[in-house]
Specification:
alpha+beta, 4-stranded antiparallel beta sheet, 8 strands, elongated
Length: 146
């Protein structure tokens, strides 16, 4: 009898953990910048509006100079989808979620290292097109023919 109670408890614990780990089943639009559309029917689109609820299977497209900020229905986590992206809400959320990326981007760590190096007196150079061109010019010998 004790084994049955223990087994039922473990099954209920696993079931409740899987429900919480599954994530949101829909997202609410917090803000829209630019032209963001979603597919209402195959081949037909409509503009996304603030406070609209989008399911995971909704296909969304952000055009140039646009962005979409979504909030999970069951949490306050914001997900920003940048310009020029399209796909289902589920795939875009997985791609641009901070949790999915593991926190901060690598570029932010590099920027802080450059600032720390500059404060320590170490000067770092920034490669630009003109500096790369001048370096390439030094690599070749130019013969001037008159």
């Amino acid at each position: 009898m004790k084994n049955k109670k223990g087994l039922i408890f473990v099954l209920l614990a696993m079931l409740s953990a899987s429900v919480f780990a599954a994530g949101a089943d829909s997202y609410v639009v917090k803000s829209v910048r630019g032209n963001v559309t979603y597919e209402t029917a195959p081949g037909k689109t409509d503009k996304v509006v603030v406070d609209q609820e989008l399911s995971l299977s909704t296909i969304v497209k952000t055009n140039l100079n646009s962005a979409l900020v979504l909030v999970a229905k069951d949490s306050d986590a914001e997900i920003t989808i940048p310009a020029g992206k399209n796909g289902t809400v589920e795939s875009l959320v997985k791609q641009y979620s901070v949790v999915a990326k593991g926190g901060l981007k690598n570029n932010s760590a590099k920027a802080s290292n450059n600032i720390a190096n500059a404060s320590n007196g170490v000067e770092t150079t920034v490669n630009t097109a003109s500096s790369r061109a001048s370096e390439a010019k030094q690599d070749y010998s130019w013969d001037d023919e008159d």
